[in-house]
Amino acid sequence: MSPHPAGVSDAQWRDWTWQMRERIRTAESLSRWVSPTADEREAIERLGDRFHFVITPYYAALMDPDDPQCPIRRQVVPRLAELDDPSGVADPLDEVAHSPVKNVIRVYPDRIAFCVNNECALYCRFCLRKRMVGDLEWVMKKRELEDGLDWIRRNPEIRDVLLTGGDPLTFGDEKLDWLLGELRSIEHVEIVRIGSRLPVTLPFRVTDSLCRVLERHPPIWLHTHFNHPREITPEAAEACDRLLRAGVPVGNQSVLLRGINDDVATMKALCEGLVRIRVRPYYCYQAQLLEGTAHFRVPIEDGIALFRALRGRTSGFAIPLYVLDTPHGKVPLVHPHVIGREGDCVIVETYEGLCWRERNPRPEGTRR
Ligand code: SF4
Fold it and tell me: What is the arrangement of strands in the sheet containing 345-349, beginning at the earlier edge strand?
């Protein structure tokens, strides 16, 4: 019997190009993995022209075939709830207005996000860039990539470039090697970061050959995107391990999603699972006011309470910073542990909710 639900050999299953070719795009092909509900079937039909429905066989195999509330399934299978979002907008971060040239997004003085492609292995229903991912209009032609590189060359204050998309690792090794080589040849670019969900959605993409490309252009940092502890599979752990051995530090940026990871036990299991595979939880994003995602959003106060509850109850470095991204940069959303000053003391709140008075006199002459 084949070890894989798709009925293929192990070598084929682990071939990332096979996984890309065999992606699920219809309710019929989805039904080989789960029993789609009437809601899911209708949503696939009605939402097809708004946002792509594509899933890798690898990720589909993680879904619970019998539970429509499965946290893996909910991330990628459309729901009719996506049609019921009066407040969502297409580009909540105003990224188009922040682009001096196509797909170069500048919010901060010293760093940019460069959306080098528009393709992903699969399409997440909550994707911040659903306005562009998978859309032909946003494909980056070689000339357009060169325009972005030229813009970076002409702006010497840019020291940090985040390659994102879409997913830059859906490029073949050769194209990625060229792009990284071009960036590395720009003296003022100190670090290159890659944002990629492939270690989670298609870990077989992290081949030895890809790792050799990444190794050639240090320092490269990689931000991946695990949202639920069930995504931390042996295959995903191996992919992260290969990246780490290639000298690429791996961090995680999750999104707080209602019914998926917005309870303390799940978030704790996610964060602890990540540090066990040596992936540092970096940010957890508040879900944006993005079209078709009202059913995923969590009130900010609830998010703050969730991360407040984790403090002191797991390793400090396992707790990501909960942030709200805005058109003017990221804003930390944190519980205020500093209560205030009383004379020579600063009053703080400990993780158990106790008040602690820390003697902290102001030196003579310092401003209040
Ligand atoms: S992998 Fe990232 S860019 Fe691609 S659809 Fe998912 S969230 Fe969007």
Answer: 338-342, 345-349, 355-359
Structure tokens at 250: 């791996």
Largest CA distance in the chain: 79
187 vs 106, 153, 157, 183, 327, CA distance in Å?
19, 9, 11, 9, 28
- pTM recorded for the entire structure: 0.96
Q: How much is the pLDDT for 355?
A: 97
Six token digits for residue 205: 């993409």
What average pLDDT does the segment 267-296 reach?
Answer: 97
Q: Which atom of ligand 1 is nearest to the CA of 198?
A: 1
Q: Whose CA is nearest to atom 6 of ligand 1?
A: 124
Rounded (10°) angle between helices 264-276 and 300-310: 50
Where are the domains positioned within the chain? 10-78, 96-330
Amino acid 323: pLDDT:
98
User: Is the domain 96-330 a CATH 3.20.20.70 member?
Assistant: yes
Q: How far is the CA of 184 from the centre of ligand 1 (A)?
A: 26
Q: What token pair was written down for 217?
A: 């252009």
Q: Comparing C-alpha atoms, which of 153, 163, 156, 154 is closest to residue 104?
A: 163
Q: Phi/psi zone of residue 89: left (φ > 0), alpha (ψ -120 to 50 degrees), beta?
A: beta
CA distance 305 to 353: 12
Q: How many CB atoms lie within 10 A of CB 240?
A: 24
Ligand 1 residue neighbourhood (C-beta within 6 Å): 120, 123-124, 127, 129, 133, 165-167, 197, 225
Residue of the CA atom closest to atom 1 of ligand 1 = 197
* Residue-level pLDDT at 366: 77
First-last CA distance in the chain: 74
* Closest by Cα among 6, 56, 33, 72 to 230: 72
Report which protein residue has its CA nearest ligand 1's atom 3: 166
Q: What is the DSSP letter of 290?
A: B
pLDDT, position 363:
87
Task: Give me 313's structure tokens.
Answer: 């109850």
